[in-house]
Amino acid sequence: MKGKIFFISGPSGVGKGTLINALRERHKNWEFPPSCTTRDPRPGEIDGKTYFFVSREEFEKKIDEDEFLEYATVHQGNLYGTLWKPLVEGAKKGKIVVREFDVQGFRQMREKLPRDLYTSIFLKPDGGIDTLVERIRDRAPITETELARRIESMQKEFAMEKMYDHTVISTDGEIEQMVEDAEKIIEETVKE
Ligand code: 5GP
Question: Taking the complete model, does pTM exceed 0.85, yes or no?
Fold first, then answer.
């Protein structure tokens, strides 16, 4: 099982979703277990693929039975979390398993799973915090107070880079490079 589980993490807006989607496209035999949530499925979403959709009672039962590596209350009081079973079962079958975390989720997860069971990759924008600030400003109007709060939280997230085994740089307009760098880390780790 060792060397089969990969966690991709990094500050919000850095492009984790883009990287995961590209890896999913290119590696049909890798597994990308979804999160578990109490929110209702939206049209077109598939249980077990987009999310594992469960009731609040089921989610709470899973919390009690310690089935989550991490979980949090996110939108409108809905719970979201990462189940450890689909990760470990995929790896036991000999599959490469890739999972995305925000930095906070990675930190929670790290308390639970032995370090030698997974390899972690931190995704970082080439221009550092400035790149993310630009993206936030471009996306929607934001007050200076809110921006200052976001910058402070980003600084904390960037400071956590040292918790990860590897760093991959994401450069605007160079998705291919980011994907290849992540693939190289994954493929070389599996070979070891
Ligand atoms: P959605 O739009 O799918 O309802 O919600 C997406 C948001 O839920 C994401 O931006 C992310 O913040 C959060 N989320 C999704 N999956 C997880 C998870 O497994 N754990 C945590 N902590 N948050 C999640």
Answer: yes
